[in-house]
């Protein structure tokens, strides 16, 4: 099968999606995740922990919920429905780390979980770090040649 035949085969087998519906689902699902974060923030604020600790507690709670839903095979169903809406950074990243860990636990902690835990999240970490270094270098060079006001 050559490249053209393969592309035609894939196009015939691929499910067609409605872009408008997908965007709406992603928008309201991502918004709901953010709303949950805001509700948690309002619930934790009266504890008197301060802004920094309250924000940290909200983040930890969202990570816990995402990992719990991943372990219960619920997060994947939400992601199938919402698409990019579940990629709200903290919950999407928690799912990207937890999924391979859960999938490979039968292979053991070293060769399974330890070796494969970052198979999905690893490229995100790598390219995010590389992009931030490149951005920093560009900013540094621009500042070298920009006169101080």
Brief sketch in words of this structure:
With 149 residues, the chain is mainly α.
**Backbone CA Rg:** 21 Å
Number of strands: 0
Percent range for β-strand residues:
under 5%
Based on helices, strands and strand pairing, what is the structural class? Answer: mainly alpha
Number of helices: 7
H-E order: HHHHHHH
Classify the oligomer: single chain
Distance between the termini: 63 Å
User: What's the shape?
Assistant: extended
List segments where confidence is low: pLDDT < 50 over at least 5 consecutive residues: none
Helix content: over 70%
Largest sheet: none
Estimate the mean pLDDT confidence: 86
Protein model, in words:
It is a single chain. This protein is an all-alpha fold. Helices cover 77% and strands 0% of the residues. It has helices at residues 3-13, 19-44, 51-71, 75-82, 89-103, 109-116, 121-145. The chain is extended and about 60 Å long.
Task: For the structure shown, list the relevant keywords.
single chain; 149 residues; mainly alpha; 7 helices
How is the secondary structure organized here?
Layout: H1 3-13, H2 19-44, H3 51-71, H4 75-82, H5 89-103, H6 109-116, H7 121-145
Helix pairs in contact: 2-3, 3-5, 5-6
């Amino acid at each position: 099968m050559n490249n053209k035949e393969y592309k035609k085969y894939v196009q015939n087998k691929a499910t067609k999606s409605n872009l408008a519906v997908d965007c709406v689902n992603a928008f309201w699902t991502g918004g709901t995740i953010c709303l949950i974060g805001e509700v948690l923030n309002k619930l934790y604020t009266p504890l008197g922990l301060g802004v920094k600790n309250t924000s940290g507690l909200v983040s930890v709670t969202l990570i816990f919920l995402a990992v719990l839903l991943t372990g219960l095979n619920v997060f994947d169903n939400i992601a199938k429905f919402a698409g990019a809406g579940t990629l709200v950074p903290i919950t999407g990243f928690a799912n990207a780390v937890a999924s391979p860990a859960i999938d490979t636990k039968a292979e053991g902690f070293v060769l399974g979980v330890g070796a494969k835990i970052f198979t999905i999240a690893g490229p995100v970490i790598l390219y995010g770090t590389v992009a931030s270094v490149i951005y920093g270098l560009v900013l540094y060079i621009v500042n070298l040649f920009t006169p101080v006001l």
